[in-house]
Amino acid sequence: MTRDEAQDAWEEIVDKGFSDYQKLTREQRVWFNVEPLTTDGLWDHYVNHGADKNADTILDLEYLNFNSIADQLREFNKTYFPNGVPEGPDARQDEFDKFDEDELEDYIEEMDDKFWELSDDLENALMKHINNTGIGK
User: Can you give the residue ranges of the DNA mimic protein DMP19 C-terminal domain (predicted)?
Assistant: First the structure.
């Protein structure tokens, strides 16, 4: 199954994920949390709503055996959110505003460069997960 063929199933999972996240199965949750990373990267995870489920995203990356990416998120959290990842993009932006903009941008660029080196492999693993579990049908 291709991503295009799974589009209808993806839209249903997105609807469920935003309306009642707890009702996602583990397999659906992995897709819901990891898919945005494969298309938009790690920085986008933090500036949009993805980081609202940051802890689950880390677990889901590990579930797909992408511990190195999970560790990138952990390291970012430790550096910029030592008291926990704030809920909502605005709250996270308030925390980012406390740091030197140039240093933050350099860190983000380095983080995203490392991520994009692995993104094709992550996307392939996610598609394998979708196909093996049948959640894309």
Answer: 23-130
